[in-house]
Amino acid sequence: MEQNIELAKTRDFGEIINDTFVFIKQNLKPLLKSFFTICGLLLLALAIVQSLQMIKVYDLQRQIYTAASGSGTSYNAGYRFGYQYGQMAGQYLLSFAVMILFYTVMLITILSYIALYKEKGNIAPTTEEVWVYVKYYFLRVLGSSILLGLLLMLGMVLCLIPGIWLYPITGLILAVIVLENAPFGYAFNRGFKLISNNWWLTFGCLFVAGLIAGLGAMVFTVPNYIIMFYNLLVHTRASATSSVPLVFITTTIQILGQTLLIIPLVTLALCYFNLTENKEGTGLLNRINQFGTTKPHTDLPAEEY
């Protein structure tokens, strides 16, 4: 039987990527159960909000096509369409807010699962245990994510390079908050200390894991692109009504592709453990301290005298 993966150990680039998939494979059922149980409602809300948003966009596109084909190309028609697009700002804000909540809860869920897995001695935690952690860390991680998001946006505006440099550091800060139960100030300083002299390795691992997740998620977006082109080609009112269920189904399938973000989140945790082991060796010290205190595992029956 394959031994459960040890988190607290040093790894090179290939080992981090490989162990990401080993961990997901070994914990697939309990990990997905925790994810869909805790994040499922937000996942559904995101699918509904984005479906309504897409239906509104398709409807406006049909109106523009109809106006351009007839006599509605006047200033008043253009003003009306501009006003309607402006009315959609509320929908975009709602979609953005739900998305932020979903990504925050997802990040806490996966990192909490990993934290509990380590605490329990490489044993998968229950969904109830993960939920307790999610409730505990939610406000702290949400506030920290907003601050770090603003910092990252500022870095992107400043010639892009500062934003790229901050990208892996912001991820580590959030990982420290959950995996070490740390306040934001401590996690902020620790994130910079951990990544010193290891920026390229951490960035490379997160970039590759994100790229794999992104390419995999593209498969889920294909149905949505098909319905989008269909709605662009068919501009009748009947098609607007008949396409509503199809839009919801394809959007839901696309949203389900977000589950692949589990991959870079597991990679982020493994990068954190790799950095802490490189600098502190806490996992190695714990294993040394356990020598002579644990009984060897054996399938042999006890000796009888």
TrEMBL record:
Domain of life: Bacteria
Keywords: Membrane, Transmembrane, Transmembrane helix
Record carries keyword 4Fe-4S: no
Keyword DNA-binding: no
Transmembrane regions: 35-55, 92-116, 137-158, 164-188, 200-226, 246-273
Protein known as: Glycerophosphoryl diester phosphodiesterase membrane domain-containing protein
Lineage: Bacteria, Pseudomonadati, Bacteroidota, Sphingobacteriia, Sphingobacteriales
